[in-house]
């Protein structure tokens, strides 16, 4: 664990040797980590950052997997509803169109952005950043794109949409014959891959690799 800094000596230390906990604001000396190690706040236990193995290669694999899942997750049927002899198939995209065509254009735009637009934009930003590090090109643009990605992180709400789907399944199961589609499997897989990607793609290592502070940060 990092060592807390004596408040009387803070002004004597270079800023690049200090790190603050995001949860409790404790100021500490920045520890140097070996591969596989992680730094935790000694006060609250929050993980400050980690040095993971092959972060770029593993993250690239997950980004590509997520992009491959994106189209089937959004355009294949999530469920099929049979009611009084009539069958209908619902997808994420058809849900957006349904809201738009029933006069709720504002809600349709929000649902589209949070469930389709921003998640795709986040994946493309991550792909561009990782390729910038992998091929060692355009790292200044990589820094800009990674900043944009961090501003978008809180706006992609796949998990909220998934909870809405689960609620709809539970409520409709008693009213009609309901069958789940391949789109739901792809959607859940996309959600899990994105969560895994957030864990694997260590922000500390990505920032270091993009800024050139540590040329081996992405290894």
Automatic annotation (TrEMBL):
One of its GO terms (cellular component) is plasma membrane. It is found in: Cell inner membrane. The chain crosses the membrane at residues 60-84, 104-131, 152-172, 178-197. Keywords: Cell inner membrane, Cell membrane, Membrane, Transmembrane, Transmembrane helix. This is Paraquat-inducible protein A. It comes from Pseudomonas fragi.
